[in-house]
Specification:
InterPro entries: SAM-dependent_MTases_sf (IPR029063), TrmK (IPR006901). This protein has helices at 8-14, 33-42, 74-79, 81-86, 89-108, 114-132, and strands at 2-3, 6-7, 24-27, 45-55, 58-67. It is an alpha+beta fold and 135 residues long. The strands form two sheets. It has a three-stranded antiparallel beta sheet. A two-stranded antiparallel ribbon has the order 1-2.
């Protein structure tokens, strides 16, 4: 998440000394949730709960992390390990909306620009795989 022009991970890094002895973090990033999950994983925190909500057309994720160890897959980093597993209606709506945006963007990329088209197609496919995953 950007905060005053800085990434939340940078802010957490800058105040890492203040996190000593902190057992629980409750975080609500406005964006770049994947970067925050990576930071937590690399800095001795484990996400124990996640929630997603929407208000005024915007999606908000809330993460609860405690001191611990976790190892996340690329998909868990991107979609959230708990959110991906729970697949709430809000989660489904958020990612369907992202598919729609990517499909519109894909329509504007010339066929000759295959590398960019493939990158977007891969993102769409990954989202569809997550949304269609049956636990």
């Amino acid at each position: 998440m950007w905060y005053g022009g800085r990434l939340i991970a940078d802010i957490l890094d800058a105040g890492k000394d203040k996190l000593k002895g902190v057992d629980r973090l409750i975080l609500q990033p406005n964006n770049r949730e994947d970067d925050l999950r990576i930071w937590l994983m690399e800095n001795g925190f484990e996400i124990i709960a996640e929630s997603i909500m929407t208000e005024n057309g915007k999606y908000y994720e809330i993460m609860v992390a405690e001191a611990g160890h976790m190892s996340l897959s690329d998909k868990e980093v991107r979609f959230g390990p708990h959110l991906m597993k729970d697949q709430s209606q809000v989660f489904q709506l958020k990612w369907q909306r992202e598919i729609n945006k990517l499909e519109i963007a894909l329509g504007f990329i010339p066929l000759a620009n295959q590398a960019d088209r493939t990158a977007i197609e891969d993102k769409i496919q990954t989202i569809k795989e997550v949304l269609n995953h049956v636990s």
